Amino acid sequence: MIKQGKGWRIGWKPNPCTYQGLLGGEDWAMELTSAEMADFCRLLPEINQAVIDISEHLMDEEKIVCEMESELLWLGAEGYPQNYSLRVILSQGRCCEGTWSVEVLPELLKAIQSFHLF
Q1: Which domain range does residue 99 map to?
Q2: Phi and psi for 114 in degrees, rounded to 5?
Q3: Per the domain annotation, does 118 fall within a domain?
C-alpha cells in the first residue's frame, strides 16, 4: 500500500520482512522498519501540534525551529508556524535522511492520519 502526492510518498507492506515502511520525497526514498515507521507516524502529528502550540507565543514574522526524536529517528520542523519544512533522520544502522518542502506537509499529515498500520 503506497499513498503519494506531489513531493511525498508513504508506504507499508504488512508481510514480515526487515523493512515494512517507505518514506519518500521528490527525489529521495528510504525504507523503514516497523518500529521506525511507528515512531514516524507518532512523531509527525506531535511535532505539528508542538508547532501550533509554540506559534501562539510568536510574532507574525518570527520563524520557528522545533525538533522531536525517539531512539530510532529525529524530526525537525523549520519555517513559519503555518508554513514549515520537515526533515527526518534515521539514527539507527542505515543513518538516512530526507526533507519535505513547505508545500508537502498538509498532505503528508492527512495521509498519516488515514494510514492505519498497526
Answers
A1: 2-113
A2: -100, 5
A3: no
Query: What sections of 27-70 are H helices per DSSP?
Result: 34-55
The 10s digit of each residue's pLDDT in 59-82 is: 878 899 999 999 999 999 999 888
For residue 42, give the CATH number of its domain: 2.30.31.10
Which own/partner pairs from 106-112 qualify as long-range (CB within 8 Å, at least 24 positions apart)? Answer: 107/5, 107/6, 107/8, 108/5, 108/8, 108/10, 108/44, 109/44, 109/45, 109/48, 111/3, 111/5, 111/8, 111/10, 112/10, 112/41, 112/44, 112/45
Q: How far apart, in whole angstroms, are the C-alpha atoms of residue 91 and residue 26?
A: 22
Copy the grid coordinates of residue 24: 519518500
> CA-to-CA distance for 59 and 94, rounded, in angstroms?
39
Least confident of 39-43, 90-94, 98-102: 90-94
